[in-house]
Specification:
There is one protein chain. Strand 6 (about 110-115) and strand 7 (about 120-125) form a beta hairpin. The chain contains 16 helices and 23 strands. It has helices at about 25-30, 80-85, 135-150, 185-190, 200-205, 260-265, 280-285, 315-325, 325-335, 355-360, 375-385, 400-415, 425-430, 455-460, 475-490, 490-510, and strands spanning about 40-45, 45, 60-65, 95, 105, 110-115, 120-125, 165-170, 175-180, 220-225, 230-235, 245-255, 270-275, 290-295, 300-305, 340, 390-395, 420-425, 445-450, 510-515, 520-525, 530, 545-550. The protein is about 25% helix and about 20% strand. It is globular, with a radius of gyration of 22 Å. It has a domain at about 300-515: Dipeptide-binding Protein, domain 3 (Roll), CATH 3.10.105. The chain is α+β, with helices and mostly antiparallel strands. It starts with about 25 loop residues before the first helix and ends with a strand.
Length: about 550
C-alpha cells in the first residue's frame, strides 16, 4: 500500500504455490528471493547498499527525524511513512518482510495452504503483549475483524476483500477461508494488514486507541510518552520474544521543515532518518557527522490523477501533459540526481522474478519519457483543451513534491494549459490519501508510491473499480477482470504474464503519469549503525537493530 509523497534488488519476493501444497514458513522463505547480498545496483550513478554495518553494542537511546507527526498509530490506518516508520517497531504481523525484501515467519511460525482458498497460520507460543498478557488465536481474529469492520474505514480493507472468514481453529491456530484464491493475501500478512494487537487492550482503549496510552502489541519496543506536536518515545520491551532491541529508547522528532531536519542531522541533534530531503543529499554526503546511504525503495514518483471529470478526463490531455514534462530536469533537481527517469508506474525491481520475455513485454512500448512539445501541443489542440485549468497539489514537505508540481506547471504553460498550484501543509498531506474532501478541487497529486510487497500487482491493482487509491474513479471491466485473474493466480510466472497486460493498459490510459524511480535514502550519525537501507523499514522492526557503531 502506499501513499503520500513521499507511497515503495533485483530479485523480488514471490510466493511459489501449488494449489494443494502444504506450505510451511520455511518453504515461504525458500520461495522468495531478495536483493543481492553484496548491495544493489545503481540509479543514475547512486550506488545502492543492501544494508548498513551491524551494530557492535547497545546504546541508551537514539533520536530519529520524521517529516510529520502520525495522526494515529492505530494499525488499521497505518498506510503512510510517519505511521509505519514508528509502528513497525511496536506492532508485529503474522509474517515478516525482511531487510532483503523477502517473506519470513513473524508471529506465525508456520503458514500452510492446504487448498487454494484456505490459509492456516500456526502461531508462536508464549508471545507476550506489552501489557503482559499472552497472545492467542482470539487476538488474531479480533485484530483482523477490526480491518474488515466498515466503521473503522481501514486503509487495508482491500487486502481482505476476498476473505470469507477468519476463525480460531485452536488456541494457537487461525484459519482464513477465502472466497476465491488470492495470491496477494499471504504476502500482505507481512504488512500492517497482518498486525496482531491484544483484544483486551484495544477494547479498553476504545476510541483513544492509537492516539494515547499503549498500543498493546508484541514488538521489540512499546509506546512511551507522546508529546503532541513534538515527539514520540519508544521504550525497549524486555519481554520481547526475540532478540532484544539494542537501544533502551528510540525518540522520534517531528520536523516538518526540510531544512530543520537536515540541520538537526548535521548538528547531531538527531542521529538519523529516512526520507531525507533531496535538496540535502550533497550536504549530507560531504559532511563529517555521518553517512548517507541509498537502498532499494521499490518506489516510483508519479502524478496521481485524482479527477477524471475535468480536463484530465480526456486521455489526450493526460498524454500531452506527460509529453511536455521534463522528467530529466526533475530527476536532476527534484531528486538531486538520485533517481532514474521512467515511463513505467512499477519499478524494474518488482519484475525481476518474472521470466525474461514477460518482463520485456511489461516494459515494451510504455509511456514515452522524452519531451515532445510539438506533439503535446497538437494533442491539446485536438482535444480542444487550450486554456483549460488543472489544479495540482504542492507542499513544502520536500523539493521532490514542490519541484515536481512546478515542473508540471511549466509543462502546462508551454502547451496552453492553465496549471494552478494548491499548497498543502506537510501535516495535512496525508489527508489527501484518506479524505475525499481534502482532494476536492484537485486534479493531480505528486505521489511517491512504494510497493508494500514485492509484486507489481501491489500498484497495478489501484486502477481496479473502487480500489482504495483509484481517486480518479477509473472503471474498466476488462481491467478489473485481469486484476481478478492475476490475484487468483498462485503461479508467479503465470501471474506476471497477466500483470504485464495490466501494466500496458495503465500505460496506454496514463491513469497516473509516471516520472521516475527513486531509491530509499537513509542518514546515520557516525555513532550508530544497523538500520536497513531498503523500504523494509515500513514493516520490519528496524529500530531494534540500531546500536553502537564502535
Amino acid at each position: 500500500m502506499t501513499l503520500t509523497p513521499a507511497r515503495r534488488i533485483p530479485s523480488p519476493g514471490r510466493l511459489v504455490l501449488a494449489a494443494t501444497a502444504l506450505l510451511s514458513a520455511a518453504a515461504l522463505v525458500a520461495a522468495c528471493s531478495g536483493p543481492p547480498r553484496n548491495g544493489g545496483g545503481d540509479q543514475a550513478g547512486v550506488q545502492l547498499s543492501a544494508t548498513t554495518p551491524t551494530a557492535k553494542g547497545d546504546i541508551d537511546s537514539f533520536t530519529w527525524a520524521t517529516y510529520a507527526e502520525p495522526p494515529t498509530l492505530d494499525y488499521v490506518q497505518a498506510f503512510d511513512y510517519p505511521q509505519n516508520t514508528i509502528l513497525s517497531n511496536v506492532c508485529e504481523s503474522l509474517m515478516r518482510w525482511t531487510p532483503q525484501l523477502t517473506l519470513a515467519p513473524g508471529l506465525a511460525e508456520k503458514a500452510s495452504n492446504p487448498d487454494p482458498v484456505t490459509w492456516v497460520y500456526d502461531l508462536r507460543s508464549g508471545v507476550h503483549f506489552h501489557d503482559g498478557s499472552v497472545m492467542t488465536a482470539d487476538d488474531v481474529v479480533y485484530s483482523f475483524g477490526r480491518q474488515t469492520n466498515p466503521d473503522n474505514a481501514a486503509a487495508w480493507a482491500q487486502v481482505f476483500q476476498n476473505v470469507d472468514s477468519v476463525t480460531a481453529t485452536g488456541p494457537l491456530q487461525v484459519t482464513v477461508k477465502l472466497k476465491r484464491p488470492d495470491s496477494q493475501f499471504p504476502q500482505y500478512m507481512a504488512t500492517a494488514a497482518g498486525v496482531v494487537a491484544a483484544k483486551a487492550g484495544v477494547e479498553s482503549a476504545g476510541k483513544d486507541y492509537g492516539t494515547a496510552g499503549s498500543l498493546d502489541c508484541t514488538g521489540p519496543f512499546k509506546l512511551g510518552a507522546w508529546a503532541k506536536g513534538q515527539s514520540i518515545v519508544l521504550e525497549r520491551f524486555d519481554d520481547y520474544r526475540g532478540t532484544k532491541a539494542k537501544a533502551k529508547k528510540a525518540v522520534f522528532r517531528f520536523l516538518t521543515d526540510p531544512s530543520a531536519r537536515t540541520n538537526a542531522m548535521l548538528s547531531g541533534e538527531v542521529d538519523g532518518g529516512y526520507l531525507i530531503p533531496t535538496e540535502s543529499y550533497d550536504r549530507l554526503k560531504e559532511t563529517g557527522p555521518g553517512t548517507l546511504y541509498f537502498g532499494e525503495g521499490l518506489s516510483t514518483v508519479n502524478l496521481n490523477v485524482t479527477n477524471m471529470q475535468g480536463a484530465l478526463g480526456d486521455v489526450r490531455v493526460r498524454k500531452a501533459l506527460s509529453l511536455a514534462l521534463d522528467r530529466s530536469g526533475f530527476v536532476r533537481t527534484g531528486l538531486a540526481g538520485a533517481g532514474t527517469v521512467t515511463g513505467s508506474l512499477t519499478t524494474k525491481a518488482a519484475w525481476a522474478g518474472a521470466p525474461d520475455d514477460v518482463r520485456e513485454s511489461a516494459f515494451d512500448h510504455l509511456t514515452p519519457t522524452a519531451q515532445d512539445l510539438d506533439q503535446a501541443k497538437a494533442l491539446i489542440k485536438e482535444a480542444g483543451a487550450n486554456g483549460k485549468t488543472i489544479a495540482v497539489a504542492t507542499s513544502t514537505i520536500g523539493q521532490d513534491v514542490s519541484l515536481l508540481a512546478t515542473a508540471v506547471q511549466s509543462a502546462g504553460a508551454q502547451i496552453g494549459l492553465n496549471i494552478q498550484l494548491k499548497t498543502i501543509a506537510p501535516n495535512a498531506f496525508t489527508a489527501l490519501f484518506t479524505d475525499p474532501k481534502a482532494r476536492e478541487g484537485l486534479d493531480l497529486i505528486p505521489e511517491t508510491y512504494y510497493d508494500s510487497v514485492t509484486d507489481p500487482l501491489d500498484l497495478l491493482t489501484n486502477f481496479k473499480t473502487g480500489a482504495y487509491q483509484n481517486f480518479g474513479g477509473y472503471s474498466d471491466q476488462a481491467y478489473d477482470a485481469l486484476v481478478d485473474q492475476a490475484t487468483a493466480e498462485y503461479d508467479p510466472a503465470k501471474r506476471a504474464t497477466i500483470e504485464a497486460q495490466l501494466q500496458q493498459t495503465a500505460s496506454r490510459q496514463l491513469l497516473w503519469i509516471p516520472v521516475a524511480e527513486w531509491p530509499t535514502a537513509l542518514f546515520l550519525n557516525k555513532r550508530i549503525t544497523g538500520a536497513p537501507t531498503t523500504i523494509s523499514y515500513m514493516y520490519y522492526p528496524w529500530a531494534a537493530d540500531v546500536g553502537a557503531a564502535r
